[in-house]
Structures are given as C-alpha cells and as structure tokens.
Amino acid sequence: CSTGPTVTIFGQVMRQGKYDFKPGMTVKDLIDQAGGLSARANKAKAELSRGHDSSSPKLLLDLTQDSAKQLKADDTLTVPSS
C-alpha cells in the first residue's frame, strides 16, 4: 500500500493500476512498470490527465515521440487500443 504520491495507468498495458510516483519519472518509466504495452495498444496515441482536477485539459501524446515526457504526481495515463 502506497502512502506517497502515485501515478495511474489505464488501457492497453499489461498491468493497469496505480504506481508509486518518483521525481523525474517519464511516460516510458510508467509504461515499463505496467509491464509494457499490450499487443492491441495504439503506440501513436495516449492521453495524459494532470492531477485530480477534471477540468484540466487532457494532453494527447504520441508514445513514439513523447515517451520521455516527465510525469507529475497524480497524473493518469490512458493508452487506447489501436
């Protein structure tokens, strides 16, 4: 059970869920912790939601180019199917 900040990943990854956030963590780090992308994952698209504020804009990412993007605590990454 984590007591510190977390990041969450949903969608086409091997293990969806919450993971401990570490400073400097990137989109690729989170995907790696989740066991990698599933065979059905859309590698060109993902959606990043920042924090718990549902009104904040969602960032559209291209996983082939934006995998080094740094995450923030409470981010949620959603990987759609292709």
Describe this structure in words.
This protein is mostly beta strands and 82 residues long. It contains one helix and five strands, in the order ββαβββ. Strand 1 (6-11) and strand 2 (17-20) form a beta hairpin. It has a five-stranded mixed β-sheet with strand order 2-1-5-3-4, covered by helices on one side. The model has no long low-confidence stretch (mean pLDDT 92).
Largest sheet: 5 strands, mixed
Strand order of the largest sheet: 2-1-5-3-4
On the 0 to 100 scale, the average pLDDT is 92
Oligomer description: single chain
Number of separate strands = 5
* Poorly predicted residue ranges: none
Gyration radius (Cα, Å) is 12 Å
Distance between the termini: 32 Å
Overall geometry comes to globular
How much of the sequence lies in strands comes to: 25-35%
- In DSSP terms (H or I, runs of 4 or more residues), the helix count works out at 1
The H-and-E topology, N to C, reads as: EEHEEE
Quickly give the structural class. Answer: mainly beta
Question: Helicity, in percent?
Answer: under 10%
